[in-house]
Amino acid sequence: MPRIVALDTNILTWALKEKATLGQEEMIPRCQAFLEWLDKKGDIVLIPEIVVSELLMDLPEDQHTEFLAKLDALQFLMQPHDRQASLLAARMWGKARPTPVSVGFGVSRKQVRVDILILAAAIAGQASVFYTNNIRDFLRFSEGFRIQVSDIPLYDELKDPQLLLFGDEADAQITQREASDNEEDNAGEKFD
To answer: Shortest CA distance to 46 belongs to which of 74, 20, 82?
Structure first.
């Protein structure tokens, strides 16, 4: 039975829009290869509709129809933000209790709310894994909920046939690797 995996906005920005900030250019081919890898694995890719809104927001209006057609061609499962997602988001917000100190430098409470809405929709859509490049925050939000948060596999990992065969275990290894890397990167930072 195929598993359902959800994607964060940043993955689709890199893979489909082919946009990256300075220093993140390697994420474009990596995320494109990642979408191909998910397809080869036979995973069902779920996209929360809030992600679609975020993707459209920085496009000129005359490009919206073309971009939506591109998304439709990929046959992703679109997940609306329904009542179940609303209840999950409220629970996440209550558990995370983000404060100006805990959201981190440069991240607003509004962005945290959007991230929680995205993750809640993924859970409501029965996704077993949520892929993002923002591991630290999403791991915190997902605590106590039935979803695994995982980073995008490294480009070399996407070519490893073992990852293709043992996806769930590989996702767990990738999540552990990224969580460890983030802990080392953030040593000395304090979060409530």
So the answer is: 74
Residue type, 158: L
Contacts of 111 (CB under 8 A, 6+ apart): 103
> To which residue do tokens 């988001």 refer?
89
Contacts of residue 21, Cβ cutoff 8 Å, sequence gap at least 6: none
Distance, CA of 118 to CA of 178 (rounded, Å): 20
What span, in angstroms and rounded, lies between the C-alpha atoms of 154 and 173?
12
Q: E strands along 23-100, which residues?
A: 44-48, 77-79
The whole-angstrom distance between residue 39's C-alpha and the CA centroid of its chain comes to 16
Pairwise CA distance, residues 71 & 73, whole Å: 5
Which tens digit of pLDDT belongs to each residue from 92-124? 988 877 655 455 545 566 778 899 999 999 999
Domains and CATH numbers, the chain: 4-185 (3.40.50.1010)
Its pTM stands at 0.80
Distance between CA atoms of residues 48 and 126, nearest Å: 11
Q: Which amino acid is at 89?
A: A
